[in-house]
Specification:
Elements (H helix, E strand, L loop, with lengths): L2 H12 L5 H13 L1 H23 L3 H65 L3 H12 L2 H27 L2
Helix pairs in contact: 1-2, 1-3, 2-3, 4-5, 4-6
Length: 170
């Protein structure tokens, strides 16, 4: 057999697909021809590379599954952003209301003093305990109450943001 004939049979020889007579002829030729042995080694190396590529190239189904998974993650992120908006808006609104209360706190405190005095005189008839309770409530600084309100608003906002971020990671 010539080198050209052997070259055509080498892939089948590597796959053990040759009839016994052709296989024996290829083996005899390979024993005497260094060029064809080199070609056989190249075919074997190329076949090994192709097999390893087959394992690394994803199937279309696997690629579709990965695409769906990524799309699902981006939907979860978008949902997390949507869930994040209402608590943030509510928190900022509460903080703004608290700031408005702080700015008007002194005016409100002075406006409530006549009512506190009237309540104090009425409560005196109920006993000293109730009178002291009403006076304590009347003396509480409205600014302090506004600051507490603002802190509560901030806590609600941060809690909602934390919940939305935690839920969005699912």
């Amino acid at each position: 057999m010539t080198c050209r004939n052997i070259e055509e049979l080498l892939p089948a020889y590597l796959d053990d697909d040759l009839p016994p007579d052709d296989r024996a002829a290829v083996e005899r030729h390979l024993a005497s021809c260094a060029a064809c042995r080199l070609m056989l080694n190249e075919f074997a190396r190329l076949e090994g590379s192709l097999v390893s590529l087959r394992d690394t190239v994803p199937s279309p189904r696997a690629a579709l599954l990965r695409f769906d998974e990524r799309r699902g993650r981006s939907r979860a992120r978008a949902l997390g952003r949507v869930l994040l908006a209402p608590p943030a808006v509510a928190g900022f609104a509460m903080a703004a209301a608290g700031a408005a209360l702080v700015s008007r706190g002194r005016e409100m405190t002075t406006a409530l003093e006549p009512f506190a005095a009237a309540a104090s005189s009425r409560a005196a008839s109920l006993g000293s305990f109730f009178a002291s309770l009403v006076e304590a409530i009347a003396e509480v600084d409205f600014v302090l109450l506004s600051a507490i309100y603002g802190l509560c608003a901030l806590a609600v906002m941060l809690g909602g943001v934390r919940f939305a971020l935690k839920w969005g990671k699912r």
